[in-house]
Each structure stands twice: as structure tokens, then as C-alpha cells.
Write a structure and sequence with these properties.
The chain is of the alpha+beta class. It has helices at residues 46-55, 107-116, 132-137, 168-171, 198-215, 235-241, 270-288; strands at 18-24, 36-42, 62-64, 71-73, 78-83, 92-93, 98-102, 119-120, 141-142, 145-146, 151-157, 163-166, 185-192, 194-195, 221-222, 248-249, 252-254, 262-264, 297-299. The chain folds into three domains: 18-84, Uridine Diphospho-n-acetylenolpyruvylglucosamine Reductase, domain 2; 90-214, 2-Layer Sandwich (Uridine Diphospho-n-acetylenolpyruvylglucosamine Reductase, domain 3), CATH 3.30.465; 224-299, UDP-N-acetylenolpyruvoylglucosamine reductase, C-terminal domain (Uridine Diphospho-n-acetylenolpyruvylglucosamine Reductase, domain 1, Alpha-Beta Complex), CATH 3.90.78.10.
């Protein structure tokens, strides 16, 4: 078992996985902004994660970070423990019409694994940046399908380290949300596909990728869709109609390609991006009376209010 080094805050137990203090999150998020994680933990497997959480000091907060595709980490960073799932959590397998995938697997890789086995119905995942854990958490969807259409079962670990097996009736999927407590960490999912011609499946994946590149700033420093679509409306249309499609704050800009995307044009801070999002939402509310809700997860503390032990480190 790996020992805990002296730079770790009190209450961090040893683990088999990798533990590091003051890790720069700006290198891990798609926006390329944000302060440090006080502690970063990459568990070796579910048993390692479960034991770590069981022994972790209860006063220390825990935050799960996937590949950083739909998050905005504030400039002060994140106190407590940031958990990233990789390695054993990124494996994809299964048999028959089912795909069993770790929560750390990239959505696009799961779509490709299903396609290689001649399973249709999971192509929409190729249009969603991020991991299966994040897709479960927000009932991610694109191109007419959502996770709730394909999930057979899931596994999650609670803050006390207990492993839970969950069926669709426990997940309580809604629009961009699930009923599973925020403190639970998804570790695995079983998805169901439908047998189909491999060539036809691959063609649909190619169509989704091409459509995404045409309509979204996929090669920019962005965090994906900024706001949820209000019932019966499109967030990007509301932003356009409110005259907010050309707003900027510092080096943060509303994407000219898609008004519901914010981009870091180079040198933006997390505060620039958050303030831009707030300004967009304010314009939309003034024009339409509709209050936009963030789809991006805004995490951490403002500059100067983050983990004291990491000041000057991991920025």
C-alpha cells in the first residue's frame, strides 16, 4: 500500500492508487482554466476507492472529475479530495446485447466498442464529450437519445464506501439529471444495444461526428453546452434573440459557431468565463423572462479562497 506523503492534509488515508497534493486542474479541464486540487486521488479499482472513502476523514469534501469536458473549475481550485477514475475504470466489455463499461471510459470509446460488436443504439455517445460516469450523472443525451434509453444497471460507491448496485428504478433519470445522491460516485454501467449491421452503425457514428464538427466549436477550449435547454425552448436561440451571442469578458467569448458554448480564446480566467455566463443568463432573463440553468458544473472557490496549502502551487 502506498504511504501518504507529508504534504498531504490531515485525514487522508493511504491507498493503493495514486495520491498527489496540489495538482494543477487547469491542465486537466477542457477550458484550460482553474486552480489546483488540494489532493488528487486516482483509485486502483473499486475496492481501493471503497476503502479510501471509508477511511477518509468525514469533514474532507470529495469532488469527482472526469476528463474535465463539462466543468468550470474556479481560479481558487478545489479543497479536499478530487477523484479521477482511470485505468481499471476505463475498461469496456460485456457479451450478447449488453455492454459493461467502467465509469472512466470515454463515451466515444464505448460507442466504438459497441459498434465493433455490431450493437446499435449507443451511437449517440460518440457525440457526447466526457466519460460514462458523467453521462450517468447528468443523463447525457444527444441526437435523439439519452442514457436512460440504454442503461440496464449501474454501480456506485457512497461517501461511506458502500458499493450499491442500481437498476433503472433507482436511477430516477430526468432531464440532465439523476436521482442518485450527488455524493455517490458512479463506477460502472451496463448498457443495452440492439444487433445491427456493423457498417451501418459505423456510418451513423461518422454522421454524428461530422454534424458535431459542423455545428459546435469542438477544436476550441470549451466546456460543451453551457446552459440546459428550458422546456420547449433552445438555449442557443434564447441567447441569440437576447442579443447575447457576441458577448465577451476578457479572453472569454460566446462562440460565434454556437451561442450556447463559451470559449477560452487564450488567457481567460475561470472568473472571465463564469462572469460571461452570468452576463448571458442576465440578458436572456431580461429579454424573455426565462432563467437559464447551468449545464456546465461550476466547481471550487474563487481566486484567493481556495486550499491554503496550495497557494502558489499547482496553478
Amino acid at each position: 500500500m502506498m504511504a501518504v506523503d507529508s504534504s498531504m492534509p490531515a485525514g487522508i488515508p493511504p491507498a493503493r492508487g495514486r495520491l498527489r497534493a496540489c495538482v494543477a486542474l487547469s491542465e486537466l479541464t477542457w477550458f484550460r482554466v482553474g486552480g489546483p486540487a488540494e489532493v488528487m486521488f486516482r483509485p486502483a479499482d473499486v475496492a481501493d476507492l471503497s476503502k479510501f472513502l471509508r477511511r477518509l476523514a468525514p469533514e474532507l469534501p470529495v469532488t469527482v472529475l472526469g476528463v474535465g469536458s463539462n466543468v468550470l473549475v474556479r481560479d481558487g481550485g478545489i479543497a479536499g479530495v478530487v477523484i479521477r477514475l482511470g485505468g481499471a475504470f476505463a475498461r469496456v466489455g460485456g457479451d450478447g446485447a449488453e455492454v459493461v463499461t467502467g465509469a472512466g471510459a470515454l463515451d466515444g470509446n464505448v460507442a466504438l466498442a459497441a459498434a465493433a460488436r455490431g450493437l446499435a443504439g449507443l451511437e449517440f455517445l460518440s457525440g457526447i464529450p466526457g466519460t460514462i460516469g458523467g453521462a450517468l450523472r447528468m443523463n447525457a443525451g444527444a441526437y435523439g437519445r439519452e442514457m436512460r434509453d440504454v442503461v440496464v444497471a449501474a454501480e456506485a460507491v457512497d461517501r461511506g464506501g458502500t458499493v450499491h448496485r442500481l437498476g433503472p428504478e433507482h436511477l430516477g433519470f430526468g432531464y440532465r439529471q439523476t436521482a442518485v445522491p450527488e455524493s455517490w460516485i458512479f463506477t460502472r454501467a451496463t448498457l443495452r444495444g440492439t444487433p445491427d449491421n456493423k457498417t451501418a452503425i459505423a456510418a451513423r457514428i461518422d454522421e454524428i461526428r461530422a454534424a458535431r464538427e459542423r455545428t459546435q466549436p469542438v477544436r476550441e477550449r470549451t466546456g460543451g453546452s453551457t446552459f440546459k435547454n428550458p422546456p420547449g425552448r433552445k438555449a442557443w436561440e434564447l441567447i441569440r434573440d437576447a442579443g447575447a451571442a457576441n458577448l465577451s469578458r476578457g479572453a472569454a467569448l460566446v462562440s460565434p459557431q454556437h451561442a450556447n458554448f463559451l470559449i477560452n480564446t487564450g488567457g481567460a480566467t475561470a472568473a472571465d468565463l463564469e462572469n460571461l455566463g452570468l452576463a448571458v443568463a442576465e440578458r436572456v432573463h431580461a429579454a424573455s423572462g426565462i432563467a437559464l440553468e447551468w449545464e456546465i458544473h461550476v466547481l471550487g472557490a474563487a481566486a484567493g479562497a481556495g486550499p491554503a496549502d496550495c497557494e502558489g502551487k499547482g496553478a
